[in-house]
Structure formats: C-alpha cells, structure tokens
C-alpha cells in the first residue's frame, strides 16, 4: 500500500481521515484516535523508511517536540513505528490558518496585531532556546494562526538543532545550509551550526513580512538573493512600500534584529520580543501618514508576482 492510499486505513491506532499536506520527508494526515482525538499525523515518506539519516531526523523532531512545553508550540502526543513498519509522529491538531495564508488575505497587518503575534511566537521560540534547541526554519508557513482567538502555534521542528550536540551527532553535513532562503540568517549560509541569534533573524523577517507584505531583500533569483544576504543590508522597513509608514521605534527594533552580524542583534529572542511589543504601542507623529494601526493598507495595484510568488517552493530544507 502506497502512502497516498492510506486515507481510510488505521495506522498505530490512528484512523486517517484526509491528506492535508506533504513535504520533502513526510506526508501529513488529519487522523482520529480514541485517546488523543483529532490529531495531525506525520508519516515518513515511503522511499525514506530505510534511510537511516531520514529516520533519525524524523525521530529527532519527535524527541525535540516532546522536550518543549509551551502553549504556543503544538504538543507532541505520540511517535514510533507502526505494525506495518511505518514511522509516524502524532501532534496536536491546531485550528486556524497557516500564517502565510492569513497574511496574504489580510495583510499587511497593523503593528499592534503583529506585536501580539510576534510576542506569542517569540515566547515559544525562547522556550525552545531555554532547553538548548534552535528551530532553524522559522517562517510563516510553519506557524498556525487562529484569527478568532488570536492564538499562534509553532510547527515543525524537523530541522531543529541541539546546541549541545557534538559534530558526530549532527545530521546535517558541514557546508550545507538548512532552512528557507527567504527567512534564513546570513550566518546560516556557511553551513555551520547556528545559534539562537539565527532564529531571532528569522523572527524579524517574519515581522517585516507581516508588517509590509514583502521581504527585506529584493533579489529576483535564488543566486541574487543569496548574494544580497551575504553582502548587502536589508531594505529599511519604511522603504519597503511607498504607501506604508511605521513608527521609527518599530523600524529600529526590526532592523536591529536583522543585523548581519549575530552580535549586533538583541541578546535573546525575549529581548527582541519585549522591544518589539513596546515599540508596537507607539504611533507615527508626522501628520498625514498612517498610524501604526492603519499602516497595513496596500494599493489595489500591488504586484504579488515576482520573487515572493516564484520562490515559495524553493529552499524548503536540506
């Protein structure tokens, strides 16, 4: 039986109801369980079931998820190998929209809403850092947001890293960067193991995107974007879109967290979060410009093609 025909069957006590997504390593199903209720069930792709590194990485994701307890991180409920030798991971079912989709429909978002979203995400990421785990793939597509409750959940620790791991315990080859190019920190491009400051950079990129609907670099190809990340400064927040303006305090916080050198960013994700939350309460003082609550308006003629539209499927992960 192929993985695409698993819908309607039972695996390790989970009845698979629908296929809801597929990545490079696993297929995700909505499933029901007598004890856990509705869950998201990740099943390692068939071609990787015998790949020792892929299996180790899959199980490591489950173990990392089990190490972190935070209301803004999906809970790991169960993992293992089923009776028919399929590796699976059951995680909490999170209601809402993928943040990427919500931002495309509703963004750019007001600074105060972004502040609330970022505060939750940063709290979750700081909890991971507190137990020595760096996420390494923070992006809107790995976040679920429920507009009704304003609650955010962080997903997918599939390429997370333990900062205490020895070189022989790492599952990524030296010289190969992991993550998503549009959100990855410059220091990650060397392929070396990154620290918490790299997650902070990704979080600042997410904040930039939620506020503006665009990204801090304008490269029109992966090669150009790669070069810009290494050699250029990001576009200032107030220059991202001609019809958007933000309080200087908000711009300063975001751009500091986007510093090319990790040591020039905030000491921790919590420090970044606190600074952003405080800045997001401010409003613009210049007459005639949008306030932080209305700075999310976009002209009807906005072009949503180009880099962001073309690159979404690229550089997901190594």
Strand content: 15-25%
Class by SSE composition: alpha+beta
Strand order of the largest sheet: 1-2-3-4-6-5
Poorly predicted sequence stretches spanning 5 or more consecutive residues: 284-318
State the end-to-end distance.
Answer: 27 Å
Note the overall shape: globular
Overall number of domains: 2
CATH superfamily of the largest domain: Transferase(Phosphotransferase) domain 1
Largest sheet: 6 strands, antiparallel
Would you tell me the overall average pLDDT? 83
Q: Find the count of extended strands (DSSP E, 2+ residues).
A: 11
In the CATH hierarchy, the architecture of the largest domain is: Orthogonal Bundle
Please write the string of helix (H) and strand (E) elements.
EEEEHEEEHHEEEEHHHHH
The CATH class assignment of the largest domain is: Mainly Alpha
> Looking at CATH, which topology of the largest domain would you report?
Transferase(Phosphotransferase), domain 1
Explain what you see:
- The chain is of the alpha+beta class and 318 residues long.
- The protein has two domains: 3-92, Phosphorylase Kinase, domain 1 (2-Layer Sandwich), CATH 3.30.200; 97-311, Transferase(Phosphotransferase), domain 1 (Orthogonal Bundle), CATH 1.10.510.10.
- The protein is 31% helix and 17% strand.
- Strands 1-2-3-4-6-5 form a six-stranded antiparallel sheet, covered by helices on one side. It has a three-stranded antiparallel sheet with strand order 7-9-10. It has a two-stranded antiparallel sheet with strand order 8-11.
- The radius of gyration is 20 Å and the shape is globular.
- The two termini are 27 Å apart.
């Amino acid at each position: 039986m192929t993985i695409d025909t698993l819908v309607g069957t039972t695996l390790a006590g989970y009845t698979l109801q629908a296929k809801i997504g597929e990545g490079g390593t696993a297929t995700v199903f909505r499933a029901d369980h007598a004890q856990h209720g509705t869950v998201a069930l990740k099943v390692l792709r068939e071609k990787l079931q015998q790949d020792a590194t892929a299996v180790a990485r899959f199980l490591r994701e489950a173990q990392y998820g089990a190490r972190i307890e935070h209301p803004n991180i999906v809970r790991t409920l169960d993992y293992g190998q089923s009776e028919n030798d399929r590796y699976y991971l059951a995680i909490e079912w999170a209601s809402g929209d993928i943040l990427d989709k919500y931002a495309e429909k509703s963004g750019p978002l007001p600074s105060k809403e972004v502040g609330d979203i970022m505060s939750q995400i940063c709290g979750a990421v700081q909890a991971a850092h507190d137990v020595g785990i760096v996420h390494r793939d923070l992006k809107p597509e790995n976040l679920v947001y429920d507009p009704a409750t304003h609650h955010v959940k962080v997903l997918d620790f599939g390429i997370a890293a333990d900062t205490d791991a020895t070189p022989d315990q790492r599952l990524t080859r030296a010289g190969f960067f992991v993550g998503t190019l549009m959100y990855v920190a410059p220091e990650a491009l060397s392929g070396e193991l990154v620290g918490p400051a790299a997650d902070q950079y990704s979080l600042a990129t997410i904040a930039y995107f939620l506020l503006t609907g665009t990204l801090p670099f304008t490269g029109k190809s992966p090669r150009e974007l790669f070069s810009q990340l290494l050699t250029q400064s990001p576009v200032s927040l107030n220059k991202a879109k001609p019809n958007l303006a933000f309080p200087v305090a908000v711009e300063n916080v975001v751009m500091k967290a986007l510093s090319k050198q990790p040591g020039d960013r905030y000491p921790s994700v919590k420090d970044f979060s606190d600074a952003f939350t405080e800045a997001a309460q401010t409003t613009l003082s210049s007459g005639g410009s949008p306030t932080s609550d209305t700075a999310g308006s976009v002209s009807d003629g906005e072009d949503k093609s180009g880099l962001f539209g073309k690159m979404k499927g690229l550089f997901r992960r190594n």
